[in-house]
């Protein structure tokens, strides 16, 4: 068998192998890039985001996720395996997001090309039978030659795209079309939607968000130099937390306005800030309010909440003191009854050895009420504003764990240390500002009062302005596509006498390419203008849809 014979016998086999594969790829691409598929994917994206709103997410609160999984055993482990606690970075959410991008791009590019071709093309020829169109005016005589009749029709159709054609039998046909902005608005809406999805993705990739508690009225403030200064910090997948915009903030005061039922109506905080992370910069003042962020470069600083930081002074037997204030966690969002813990390390020289100093540390754990209400010895809070503050605390002595290097909660003591006897309870007391409790060894614990703290959130989103731009253009495109109608008018002019053009028959037909509701009135106006050219423009006709 020759080489040519071999080629001829194998080519059909190759064709039969590749043809179904090519057809499968082509059909899959057509289905993926259809508008129906894009709408389905958009719905799936919204549906896939529901678990991220209902379930705790690992990038926001790891401890809450671990508690949730532990409480549900095997079910929690299974939920973790399918990434329900990492929804927005999961493989299946990313797959839907990418497929939606591909679908929108593959759907919109051909539609854009088709629209550009339609803008360059002339209006289509008149149908053979105009009487079958939704709007039709039978032929009427007009005393004018064909040239004058054409000009009459042109004057009746201002701002319409016109094309004049003459058929073989001498009949003149005018094709007029209007409403191209409808498709332009539709395309603008969908391209803006695509741009909105892209910019949101860019913001999630290259943005970051941190939350930090800053004590007001003399607190140390914070500087945006490292993720370590934040209480919680999350970054996008393409951001490692370095290269932050340097600035420093001090909270001078905090004020909350409350209704009579204790509901907060407004939070206000006067802050000082400087750009750069050194004391050499100039401090500027700014009044921070809810939904009124401070903008520094590409960063936005929001006031998201507040609470109280009780202050205690511990006077050790040798007279040396330690004073510390630390934020307590609001356990009741209505009355701001808060809980927390503080740990005090004796000053140097108070005790002879390191071991002795370690076993004489002081810990305070308990409740703080901004407006105290007692039921016997039980403390609760009657109002969220700080009108009559008080604390109900347990005072411990022993090893608080400050020297172990092990991370501890700032809101509670380590129960294992208490159970092991390394921390022993010395007293349980209720104190108001200025009151003290004296321990058996002479150590005095004084409640000095409380300061308010502000919860600040620093957000960086490099695509935020583009999210706003695309949202505005998306709404503009949607309104344009809903308001404007695409419609066509055809006019057929036929001479009726042997002397061409002295009397002409004019027949009109109209068609709205989309919904023709409300289009009949404009069609009748055009008809009247042809026979009554001196009639002024009617207010009903719309010229905003070229």
Count of runs of 4 or more consecutive helical residues: 11
CA(first)-CA(last) distance: 70 Å
Structural class: alpha+beta
In total, how many beta strands? 23
Using only CA atoms, what is the Rg? 38 Å
Low-confidence stretches: 6-10, 536-546
**Helix share, percent:** 25-40%
Morphology call: elongated
Largest sheet: 7 strands, antiparallel
Instruction: Assess the beta-strand content as a share of residues.
Output: 25-35%
Mean pLDDT: 84
List keywords for this structure.
single chain, 546 residues, alpha+beta, seven-stranded antiparallel β-sheet, five-stranded antiparallel β-sheet, elongated
Short note summarizing the structure:
By secondary structure, this protein is of the alpha+beta class. It has eleven helices and 23 strands.
What would your notes on this structure say?
With about 550 residues, the protein is an alpha+beta fold. The protein has eleven helices and 23 strands. It has helices at about 5-30, 35-50, 50-55, 60-80, 90-120, 145-155, 180-205, 355-360, 415-420, 465-485, 520-530; strands at about 135-140, 160-165, 170-180, 210-215, 220-225, 230-235, 245-260, 265-275, 285-290, 295, 300-315, 320-325, 330, 340-345, 360-370, 370-375, 380, 390-400, 425-430, 435-440, 445-460, 485-495, 505-510. The strands form five sheets. Strands 4, 6, 10, 11, 12, 20 and 21 form a seven-stranded antiparallel β-sheet that branches. It has a five-stranded antiparallel β-sheet with strand order 1-23-22-3-2, covered by helices on one side. A five-stranded antiparallel β-sheet has the order 13-14-15-18-19. Strand 20 and strand 21 form a beta hairpin. The longest helix has 30 residues, at about 5-30.
């Amino acid at each position: 068998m020759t080489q040519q014979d071999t080629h001829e016998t194998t080519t059909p086999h190759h064709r039969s192998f590749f043809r179904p594969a090519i057809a499968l790829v082509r059909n899959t691409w057509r289905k993926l890039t259809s508008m129906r598929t894009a709408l389905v994917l958009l719905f799936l994206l919204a549906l896939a985001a529901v678990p991220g709103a209902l379930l705790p997410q690992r990038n926001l609160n790891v401890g809450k996720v671990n508690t949730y999984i532990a409480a549900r055993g095997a079910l929690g482990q299974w939920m973790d395996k399918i990434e329900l606690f990492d929804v927005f970075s999961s493989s299946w959410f990313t797959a839907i997001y990418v497929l939606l991008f591909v679908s929108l791009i593959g759907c919109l590019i051909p539609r854009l090309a088709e629209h550009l071709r339609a803008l360059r093309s002339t209006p289509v020829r008149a149908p053979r039978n105009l009487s079958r169109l939704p709007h039709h005016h039978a032929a009427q005589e007009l005393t004018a030659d064909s040239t004058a009749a054409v000009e009459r029709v042109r004057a009746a159709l201002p701002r319409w795209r016109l094309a004049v054609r003459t058929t073989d039998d001498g009949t003149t046909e005018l094709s007029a079309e209007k409403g191209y902005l409808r498709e332009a608005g539709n395309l603008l809406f969908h391209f803006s939607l695509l741009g909105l999805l892209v910019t949101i993705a860019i913001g999630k990739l290259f943005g970051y968000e941190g939350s930090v508690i800053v004590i007001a009225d003399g607190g140390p403030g914070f500087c945006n130099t490292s993720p370590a200064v934040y209480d919680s910090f999350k970054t996008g997948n393409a951001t490692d937390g370095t290269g932050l915009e340097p600035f420093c903030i001090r909270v001078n005061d905090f004020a909350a306005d409350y209704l009579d039922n204790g509901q907060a109506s407004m939070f206000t905080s006067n802050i000082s800030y400087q750009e750069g992370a050194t004391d050499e910069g100039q401090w500027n003042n700014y009044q921070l309010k809810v939904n009124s962020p401070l903008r520094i470069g590409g960063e936005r600083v929001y006031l998201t909440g507040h609470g109280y930081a009780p202050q205690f002074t511990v006077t050790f037997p040798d007279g040396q003191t330690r004073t510390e204030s630390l934020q307590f966690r609001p356990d009741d969002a209505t009355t701001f009854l808060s809980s927390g813990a503080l740990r005090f390390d004796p000053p140097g020289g108070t005790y002879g050895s390191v071991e002795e100093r370690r076993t004489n540390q002081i810990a305070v754990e308990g409740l703080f009420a901004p407006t105290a209400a007692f039921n016997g010895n039980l403390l609760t809070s009657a109002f969220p504003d700080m009108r009559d503050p008080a604390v109900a605390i347990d005072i411990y002595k022993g090893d608080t764990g400050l020297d172990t290097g092990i991370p501890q909660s700032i809101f509670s003591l380590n129960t294992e240390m208490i159970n092991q006897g390394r921390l022993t309870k010395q007293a349980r007391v209720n104190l108001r500002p200025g009151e003290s409790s004296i321990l058996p060894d002479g150590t005095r614990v004084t409640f000095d009062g409380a300061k308010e703290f502000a919860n600040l959130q620093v957000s960086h989103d490099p695509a935020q302005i583009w999210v706003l731009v695309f949202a505005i253009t998306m709404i503009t495109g949607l309104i344009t596509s809903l308001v404007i109608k695409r419609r066509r008018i055809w006019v057929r002019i036929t001479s009726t006498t042997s002397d061409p053009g002295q009397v002409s028959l004019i027949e009109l037909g109209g068609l709205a390419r989309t919904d023709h509701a409300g289009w009949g009135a404009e069609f009748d106006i055009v008809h009247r203008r042809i026979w009554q050219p001196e009639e002024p423009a009617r207010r009903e006709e719309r010229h905003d849809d070229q």
